[in-house]
Design goal:
The chain has 67 residues and is mainly beta. 6% of the residues lie in helices and 22% in strands. Bound molecules: zinc ion. This is Recombination endonuclease VII.
Amino acid sequence: MTEQPVPVLPDIARLRPRQQMAMDCARCGRPLGAGGRVWGDTRHRGLLFRLWVCAPNCRPRAPGSAP
Ligand SMILES: [Zn+2]
């Protein structure tokens, strides 16, 4: 069994509320819809947050780039 790399999760405090509540992708910010998958669990101020992403290979939206 190969070791899974530990995902580097973003700072919860920097995410938008919709991303914190697993309504939007925690990485790129798109609405999750039905195809979300768990990115990882992280703690913030004693609370456990489960972050979701829309796709395993989605990329963070680069600031200033056209959609
Ligand atoms: Zn995404």
